[in-house]
Write a structure and sequence with these properties.
The chain is of the alpha+beta class and about 300 residues long. Helix content is about 20%, strand content about 35%. The chain has helices spanning about 45-55, 90-105, 145-155, 185-190, 195-205, 240-250; strands at about 10, 20-25, 35-40, 60-65, 75-80, 85, 105-110, 115-125, 130-135, 140, 170, 175-180, 210-215, 220-225, 230-235, 260-265, 275-280, 290-295.
Length: about 300
């Protein structure tokens, strides 16, 4: 299960729901974060969607539903192998690229459990499709002291491993993610956490992934995202967490605005990906997350 499993051909469910497989935030099928995409999930039940997501085995599979009217947004839901999540960035990028490949590039809106997410797609001269999503308005809250202690214990980190200039918080860009900054690239690279303890804590707190980061420069970050609530040891490239990071940096005044960031993720597990993040000066505006996706054979 997860990012390291063998990539197979598209799955066809008994209800004739074709599941496409994409790698998001990479133009190389061996990089980025794999996601399943069902472009027509009309009539699918929760049990069926969870079953498909479990069979696909990626950290997320997106299920697309027709809009209720000509003016309505496209419906979308996201399932990990173990549970539904309210929003997933890399599966949104994969879905956008899949829709553009089928229908042509353009702009549209998605109706997620977290709210409306606007998406645009464009085609490069080489034919590759780029996608951008704009998250729901981000939020940032403090981490309870006991929860932070439990989090560090489960990660097998200490206070001395943290970067003081980037204080721990919980950020939201459609899903909640603790943002924990390491004081060195070496600390970030040595990820060996207690899967069960972290999963139990995250379930209790309502966290989707833990966004572990290291700031290489003013606008360049490295990230890793444990995802035990989804049954995945590590998410290779996490768009929702990148949106939460953008809101965190703006809320705490840690970046000059407007800003364009690059988040590098996945290299530590052999699936390097690149996430673009755009942050406006408007405190109520969503965070733009961008990247491409490539169809897996």
């Amino acid at each position: 299960m997860g990012a390291t499993e063998t990539l197979a051909k598209p799955v066809h469910h008994t209800r004739l729901m074709e599941t496409l497989r994409y790698a998001s935030f990479s133009s190389d099928p061996t990089g980025g974060n794999p996601a399943g995409v069902v472009l027509d999930a009309t009539g699918a039940t929760d049990v069926e969607m969870l079953s498909i997501a479990a069979k696909v085995g990626f950290s997320e599979t997106a299920f697309v539903f027709p809009p209720r009217s000509a003016a309505a947004a496209i419906g979308i839901r996201y399932f990990s192998p173990l549970a539904e999540v309210p929003f997933c960035g890399h599966a949104t990028i994969a879905t956008a690229v899949a829709l553009a490949a089928r229908d042509g590039v353009g702009t549209f809106a998605l109706d997620t459990l977290s709210g409306r997410v606007d998406v645009s797609t464009s085609r490069r001269p080489d034919g590759q499709i780029d996608a951008k999503l704009t998250s729901v308005p981000p939020r940032v809250v403090e981490i309870d002291g006991d929860a932070l202690e439990d989090l560090l214990r489960a990660l097998r980190w200490s206070i001395d491993d943290l970067e003081p200039a980037l204080p721990p918080r919980v950020g939201y860009g459609g899903a909640w993610h603790p943002i924990i900054a390491a004081n060195s690239r070496e600390r970030l690279a040595e990820l060996d956490y207690d899967f069960d303890a972290l999963g139990d804590l995250m379930a209790a707190q309502g966290w989707t992934t833990v966004n572990l980061i290291w700031r290489q420069s003013t606008t360049n970050f490295h990230a890793r995202n444990p995802f035990p609530p989804g049954g995945v040891v590590e998410d290779p490239a996490t768009g929702a967490a990148a949106a939460a990071l953008g809101g965190y940096l703006r809320e705490l005044g840690l970046v000059q605005l407007p800003a364009r960031l690059t988040v590098l993720q996945g290299a530590d597990i052999g699936r390097p990906g690149v996430i673009g993040v755009e942050i406006t000066a408007d405190p109520g505006a969503g965070i733009t997350v961008s990247g491409t996706a490539v169809l897996l054979d």
